[in-house]
Specification:
about 425 residues, alpha/beta, 13 helices, four-stranded parallel β-sheet, 13 strands
Length: about 425
């Protein structure tokens, strides 16, 4: 029998479009549509959308008293249990709106954090989300619970020994959260150290790294599955992958590559998450190649690609070699003009169309003069074999009149061993 999906909340979405807001901070039909998809991902149901146009945000209610009253009435009429804003709200605006509307008020940042909290699977992922949640929560403590305003020990009516300097519960909670933030940062630093050790091992083995990046739901996990048979669940929903997955891909006879899937980017990504996820996304900085997956079937693909470009720059990976992978080509109408040019591949990760061309492009970017060769090394030069084990990929060693080695070598190693190379027929 089919399982009925329980709706967590009925939600009214509200967005403010204003000329004084930056382009990435204002709301529009496209961003509200994306917000609705986020609500569905979080397990909610959108029951209404309100887009307000104002010359500037209202300092107190963001959308103005009159519009707030309209939204309150709309919530009552439609049985809404929550209002989510497409814009960032200040902690005071969030408190005022919660009082005025009579339902819980969240902004886009809070919603994304909730989704991440549901989705994170690994210890590292959960640490990152928890850190981001505490950073988001800290300025919003006042007014979230009634007990926070309670004064501890100043009335003189409490038990003996309770009369003290009068620290409020709010200040106690703030100190507790700051301690939690410091502890989480330390734990994430430990994660970074482990990653650094793994990365140094990869560099020692000279295995290049290709990181898959892209907007959420662009098809990154489907591509990793197609390339490596990773078997990651790939569903048509936002933020389905939060935890980095890495697999080794044999691109050709002479090239193995570590391919890493990363969390999807999105417009208005909470800055707390950009910071918190650096332990995962710092992989980008150390990658040898970026595969930027773009959902070419999405009418908004150009705007989405710009969001990813900007975040790649923020993470210090803007100068890395890159291939733009235009995915979901099978979803386009016949005859549609597709992007083309150097460092561009058009594929369908789902059907496999164009993937062989992508592998050729990856090979061209990363091979860099690597060759499989046979070497005949005299016993008196046996030390060269040690160097090959350190700096090349040794496939076989046979001891006869000479030490006969088959190895995959880069240009530097080939130069050192040139005099022992078996001549090609």
């Amino acid at each position: 029998m089919g399982e009925t999906k329980e709706i967590r909340d009925k939600v009214v979405l509200v967005g403010l479009n204003s000329p004084v807001l930056k382009k990435e901070e204002t709301a529009g039909e496209e961003t509200l549509e994306e917000l609705s998809a986020l609500v569905e991902t979080a397990g909610g149901e959108t029951v209404g959308i309100v887009l307000q146009n104002r010359p500037s945000p209202d300092p107190r209610t963001f959308i103005g008293e009159g519009k707030a009253e309209e939204v309150r009435q709309y919530c009552q009429d439609n049985g809404a249990t929550m209002v989510i804003f497409d814009n960032d709200l200040s902690p005071s605006q969030q408190r005022v709106l919660t009082d005025l509307l009579g339902v819980q008020v969240l902004d886009r940042c809070g919603l994304i954090l909730d989704i991440f909290a549901q989705r994170a699977q690994t210890k590292e992922g959960r640490l990152q989300v928890e850190l981001a949640q505490y950073q988001y929560l800290l300025p919003r403590l006042t007014g979230m619970w009634t007990h926070l305003e309670r004064q501890a020990g100043t009335s003189g009516k409490g038990p003996i020994g309770s009369k003290g300097p009068g620290e409020t519960q709010l200040e106690t909670d703030r100190r507790h959260i700051r301690r939690k933030i410091d502890k989480l940062r330390q734990e994430l630093e430990d994660v970074r150290r482990v990653r650094g050790t793994q990365r140094r091992q990869r560099q020692k083995n000279e295995i290049p790294v290709a990181a898959i990046v892209g907007y959420t739901n662009a098809g990154k996990s489907t591509l990793l599955n197609r390339l490596t048979g990773a078997g990651i669940p790939a569903n048509n929903r936002l933020f389905d992958t939060l935890d980095t997955t890495s697999r080794v891909l044999s691109v050709s006879d002479t090239l193995d590559v570590v391919v890493s899937d990363t969390v999807g980017f999105i417009r208005k990504l909470p800055h707390q998450l950009v910071e918190a996820f650096k332990a995962t996304l710092e992989e980008l900085e150390y990658a040898d190649l970026l595969l930027h997956v773009i959902d070419v079937s999405n009418p908004e693909w150009k705007a989405q690609a710009q969001v990813v470009e900007r975040l790649i720059g923020e993470l210090g990976a803007g100068e890395l070699p890159r291939i733009d992978v235009f995915n979901k080509a099978d979803c386009l109408p016949v005859g549609e003009i597709l992007p083309h040019g150097e460092d561009i591949c058009v594929i369908s990760a789902k059907s496999g169309e164009g993937v062989s061309r992508l592998l050729e492009a990856v090979s061209a970017k990363l091979e860099k003069g690597v060759r499989r060769v046979t070497l005949h090394i005299p016993y008196g030069r046996g030390g060269l074999l040690d160097a090959l084990y350190r700096e090349a990929k040794v496939e076989s060693v046979e001891y006869g009149e000479t030490i006969d080695v088959v190895a995959v070598c880069g240009p530097k190693t080939l130069g050192q061993a040139a005099e022992f190379l078996e001549e090609e027929p």
